[in-house]
Specification:
Elements lengths: L1 H4 L9 H13 L8 H9 L1 E8 L5 E7 H8 L3 H5 L10 E4 L4 E5 L2 E5 L3 E5 L4 H19 L24 H37 L3 H33 L1 H6 L2 H23 L16 H9 L1 H9 L3 H78 L13 H29 L3
Antiparallel strand pairs: 1-2, 1-6, 3-4, 4-5, 5-6
InterPro entries: CorA_TM1_TM2, MRS2-like
Keywords: Coiled coil, Ion transport, Magnesium, Membrane, Transmembrane, Transmembrane helix, Transport
Protein name: Magnesium transporter
């Protein structure tokens, strides 16, 4: 029985062949044309970040993967996704427990109470952001009052001197200034390009001018959408006191250190141990139990913060509100420029439509005149057809009859033509 079964079985492959075939099957992509393995590595791989220290203002380039950054800043993955260059998200400013996530045009960074982690890029505005932030931190550490020129050579900061705001708001201010300067520069460039094109289009309507204006209008719509999103984001922050209070990272860090200090003193007096736990534990190296303990103490810290006077809380929120309001005015001015340009484009389109309607009316008028003239000429054909019939008329015997027929037919045609013109002019001048 075994002899009958053996020939029916396929020959067994060698070990090397089976190993190579299994490896080939393992490496074979499931979907042709999509490299999912590389996409997964890009989404979870190491990225280059620029770190700016709050105390010294020094910057350094560091390679950090996504999970380490999540533990370092205590952020969920959905917040880091906003900074991922693989995705395109609108401008966003988020206040979290230990960080502020900023996604404003080219500036994509994480602001904490001790540092700024900026996604490394070759864009000029990113480098200007780092240089400007370092300059302001050095000026603040040296005690000089900031009155500089800003990122775009503008009028400097929005509020007060360097000691007026905590570190996270200085970093946020530079990011807002960079975004507003970038958008305003693009709006000014679009204005310089669009207004001459519109003026040229009103004087000469051509396919080339229409195409150039169409491209300018497309750029205007896209830029207006981006400016509107930044404006709405700033306005939403100003309207929510809770979001603004959540962004006071330095104050929350100070309260947490004071809270841990009180706990360490209580632990020392109760147990007699000399170990201090006043220093906060880094989220990178802290175990999950300590992080859960820190989360449970958030309610206690919120109660501790609510014990402060309402005037002080209102004053602190007003500091951030004044900062946001200053750049809200700037971005609103940029939006007004784009709105004025859009209105000018709409007026130009209306003017062109009026011109086209006028040309269309002239063509209709010419067609009516040509039709009337054709009708007058047709009268001669009718008369010729009548006289061309096969019957005898006494008028044929008169030598001057042909001339009188032409004269009478021509006079009748002129009268009919004048009547048509008078009727057309009368209907144009008089309302229906």
């Amino acid at each position: 029985m075994a002899d009958l079964k053996d020939p029916l079985l396929p020959p067994k492959a060698t070990t090397a062949t089976s190993t190579s075939s299994s490896t080939a099957n393992h490496r074979r992509p499931l979907f042709h044309g999509v490299d999912l393995l590389n996409l997964k590595k890009r989404g979870q791989g190491v990225r280059s970040w620029i770190r700016v220290d709050a105390a010294t203002g020094q910057s350094q380039v560091m390679e950090v993967d996504k999970f380490t950054m999540m533990r370092r800043c205590d952020l969920p993955a959905r917040d880091l996704r906003l900074l991922d260059p693989l995705f395109v998200y609108p401008s966003t400013i988020l206040g979290r427990e230990k960080a502020i996530v900023v996604n404003l045009e080219q500036i994509r960074c994480i602001i904490t109470a001790d540092e700024v982690l900026l996604l490394n890029s070759l864009d000029g505005y990113v480098l200007q952001y780092v240089v400007e932030l370092q300059r302001r931190l050095v000026a603040a550490n040296s005690g000089d009052v900031f009155a500089g020129g800003g990122l775009g050579g503008g009028g400097g900061g929005a509020v007060g001197g360097p000691d007026y705001l905590p570190f996270e708001f200085r970093a946020l201010e530079v990011a807002l200034e960079a975004a507003c300067t970038f958008l305003d520069a693009q709006a000014a460039e679009l204005e310089i390009e669009a207004y001459p094109l519109l003026d040229e289009l009103t004087s000469k309507i051509s396919t080339l001018n229409l195409e150039r204006v169409r491209r300018s209008k497309s750029r205007l719509v896209a830029l207006t959408r981006r400016v509107q999103k930044v404006r709405d984001e700033i306005e939403q922050l100003m309207d929510d006191d809770g979001d603004m209070a959540e962004m006071y990272l330095t104050e929350k860090k100070r309260r947490m250190e004071a809270f841990y200090g009180d706990q360490s003193l209580q632990g020392y007096s109760s147990t007699g141990a000399g170990i201090s736990v006043s220093a906060p534990v880094s989220p990178v190296s802290s175990p999950p139990e300590s992080r859960r303990l820190e989360k449970t103490l958030s309610f206690a810290r919120s109660r501790h913060s609510s014990m402060k006077s309402s005037d002080s809380t209102t004053e602190n929120i007003e500091e951030l509100e004044m900062l946001l309001e200053a750049y809200f005015v700037v971005i609103d001015s940029t939006l007004n420029k784009l709105t004025s340009l859009k209105e000018y484009i709409d007026d130009t389109e209306d003017f062109i439509n009026i011109q086209l309607d006028n040309v269309r009316n002239q063509l209709i008028q010419f067609e009516l005149i040509l039709t009337t003239a054709t009708f007058v000429v047709t009268i001669f054909s009718v008369v010729a057809g009548i006289f061309g019939m096969n019957f005898e008329i006494a008028l044929f015997d008169n030598a001057s009859a042909f001339q009188w027929v032409l004269i009478i037919t021509g006079v009748c045609g002129i009268i009919i033509f004048c009547c048509f013109l008078f009727y057309f002019k009368y209907r144009r001048l008089m309302p229906l």
